[in-house]
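User: Need the bound-state model for fe (ii) ion:
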Amino acid sequence: MPLHRLSSVTIGVPDVAATAGYYADFGLAPGADGWFATRDGGDQLRLVQAPTRRLVELRIGADDPDDLDRAAHRLEALGIPAERGADTLIAYEAVTGVRAVLQVEPRISQPEVPATRYNGPGRIERAGARAPGILRAEPVRPRKLGHAVLGTTDFAATSAFFRDGLGFRTSDMIGDIGAFLRCSTDHHNVLVLAAPVAFLHHTSWQVDDVDDVGRGASAMLDGHPERHVWGLGRHHAGSNFFWYLKDPAGNFAEYYSDMDTILDDQLWTPETLEGARGLFNWGPPPPPSFLRPDDLAALMTGAHSR
Ligand SMILES: [Fe+2]
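Assistant: Bound-state model below.
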């Protein structure tokens, strides 16, 4: 696939300072101009001021300029204008207002983190030592941005923009209301969800293993129980462990580990998931506010008055 990574996400929030403190606690490293860095992916989150919380921009890595030309032609066939720069292609998804920037850049290379040694029946991988998950003392710092999930009032149009226009591949579907799309070897980098209003549902950040999902979330909840949304659990689509938290603007942020990887498009068969499988495989039941965040009505009112 000519696309190879989800490079960054820009989120608009009313109170940048309060939200910035949250993402610093989350383990992202603050830099200049509202940018935050992950350990392996460089600057991957940018916070900007906006009247109401929203997904402003997604940047997506492509291998070479020809890939941008091909995407431009596909967008044109969909009737979507795109602006071609030297190494970028910029297009707006009309329903959600999200700006997508395809940019020519090197592929991400992540240093190999040795597998965590977990003991199992008939399999002693760690003898005479306590588990790394209880010995680690350093704060969790996400390795990279994994995905962004956006709600849209026109599911067909928004998923067509990413899939047929930009060139994302479909990994799985949730009935006819959700599309897990990838622009890398990760199972999904964008999930488009049918919703009563366009909004950012969550961003998701990779950590080393399930212990770091738990350690990261526990540290975030220490003194801030209001940040809890849903976890610990394991998704069905993508298989990843998850724990969702909420930033002060109302955006969810997920720690994840162990997501399915698709190296060969021919060796993956997308499935259409029905019912709870679209949401998760195991874990506590999702709270109602996971699917319909508490501020959705307010966002709808805001959308109508714009
Ligand atoms: Fe997620």
